[in-house]
Amino acid sequence: MTPGPAAAPVSEEAPGRWRILALLATAELLGMSLWFVGNAVAGELGARWGLGVAEKGGLTTAVQLGFVAGTALSAVLNLADLLPARRYFAVSAFLAALANAALLAVPSFALALLCRFATGLCLAGVYPPAMKMTATWFRSDRGLAIGTVVGALTVGKAAPWLLAAVPGIGLEGTVLAASAGAVSAALLVGLGYREGPFEFPRRAFDWRLVAAIVRHRETRLATAGYLGHMWELYAMWTWVPAFLAASAAATAAAAGGDGAGGPARTVGALSFGVIAAGGLGCIWGGWAARRIGYARVVTYAMRASAICCLGIGLLFGRSLWLVGAVALVWGFFVVADSAQFSAMVTEVAPPHAVGTALTLQTSVGFLLTMATIQGIPLLAERLGWRFAFPLLALGPALGLVAIARLQRRATFGTASGPR
Questions:
Q1: Rounded to an integer, what distance in angstroms lies between the CA atom of residue 264 and that of residue 275?
Q2: Fewer C-beta neighbours within 10 Å, C or N terminus of the chain?
Q3: What is the DSSP letter of 188?
Q4: Nearest to 322 by CA among 244, 380, 378, 390
Q5: Helices and strands (DSSP H and E) totals, the chain
């Protein structure tokens, strides 16, 4: 019997994948610009409603809580599988833009928090789906591709500070510009995205698998490392701009100025740069993981960010350029390991429970961020900004212990395939 022709090998490189990656990265940058809008305009909102430092932190905490609620709702209802990806993303981005713009119309701080919560709820349909959408186009170089998208959304999260630093833009201009960006993201994906060739099997989130994940030691350790990362990340992003402003004011006061607020535009642009530096960090993390593996990337990143946590307060009141240089290094490394933690969980979790493990990791991680987002301003008020950030070093320190233990129990691949 004559054997039939051999099946053609499936290409690892889908045609057009880099164009789709550029589209998704741009859409994430524009869509995620909504995340920190409340903080970038906290000065104006604070003056309007007489807000204290901790209440201003609530503008970010509300987004975090909304995002947790949105990811949980999406997982339980299995929205990512029931709805076409581009429609789910586009509708979510458009609704997030509306919730953000409503911030200008509300008459009270309580309703402002509700707007921020709704924005986070809708962004749950913008952030996680983009990771999956990217992965359907990449089999090789997947870690680099996802790292690029995470880098783009990091720059997007920094964008409100750049907008707020534009002369004359004010509260209304900053809020509306960010909402316009999210509407553009919705149109970009709604009209330009198509599903990639490497689709994932549809698996619903299953609460019954949570107990199995909690009992699985390797998954617990990988998740513990991620939680250490999250303990630090969003508190750093939220409060470094306030730290830089306070440091600049202290420098000005020491030089004989009034110290009222330091060079506000310079601080705003530097705050953008510090958070946006994480975009380059994410790309580095994806590139490095291809060569040295996930575990070593997260280890290097957590060590560097822990050193910055401990050291930056010692520079409070010094030259803004010196403080800013350390903050830029911190911004680069604080998020460089983010995508790699998720990749680690996909490797070590039981295969039938990967989706549930990722959902649980994300939800608990974002819930944890609320503790440090609200805790840092309390420390700053009682001890001063010089001693506020060392608390954050506990996260990467514990994360390093967890990953070291995990490395003794598991062998990791790289972002481009197993070792």
A1: 17
A2: N
A3: H
A4: 244
A5: 18, 0
pLDDT of residue 9 exceeding 50: no
Q: 417 in helix, strand or coil?
A: strand
What gap in Å lies between CA 267 and CA 230, rounded to an integer?
25
Is the distance from CB of 222 to CB of 298 less than 8 angstroms? no
Residue carrying the six token digits 């590139």: 287
Q: Tell whether the model's pLDDT for residue 416 goes beyond 70.
A: no
**Residue 245 token pair:** 């402003």
With left for phi above 0 and alpha for psi between -120 and 50, is residue 83 left, alpha or beta? beta
Q: Which pLDDT belongs to residue 359?
A: 78
Query: Which amino acid appears at position 348 of this protein?
Result: V
Report pLDDT digits (tens) over 253-262: 887 765 554 5
What is the Cα–Cα distance from 360 to 356, expressed in whole angstroms?
6
Please work out, in degrees rounded to the nearest 5, the angle formed at the alpha carbon of residue 259 by the alpha carbons of 258 and 263.
115
Q: How does pLDDT run across 100-118, given as a tens digit for each residue? A: 999 999 999 999 999 999 9
Name the β-bridge partners of 138. Answer: 13
Spatial separation of the C-alpha atoms in residues 257 and 252, rounded to whole Å: 5
**What tokens were used for 78?**
């299995």
Judged against a pLDDT cut of 60, whether residue 37 lies above it is answered with yes
- Select from 180, 168, 294 the least CA-distant residue to 229: 294
Residues 6+ apart with CB under 8 A from 403: 221, 222, 225, 295, 298, 299, 302
- Residue 105 neighbours by CB distance under 10 Å: 8
Of 204 and 301, more confident: 301
Q: List the structure tokens of 341.
A: 């933690």
Structure-derived torsion over alpha carbons of residues 170, 174, 177, 183, reported in degrees to the nearest 10 = -140
Average pLDDT over residues 261-274: 83
| DSSP state, residue 118 | H
- 1 has pLDDT over 70: no
335: nearest Cα among 279, 295, 384:
279
Mean predicted confidence (pLDDT) in 121-134:
89
Pairwise CA distance, residues 126 & 121, whole Å: 10
Spatial distance between the Cα atoms of 311 and 326, rounded to a whole number of angstroms: 9
Share of the chain above pLDDT 70, in %: 91
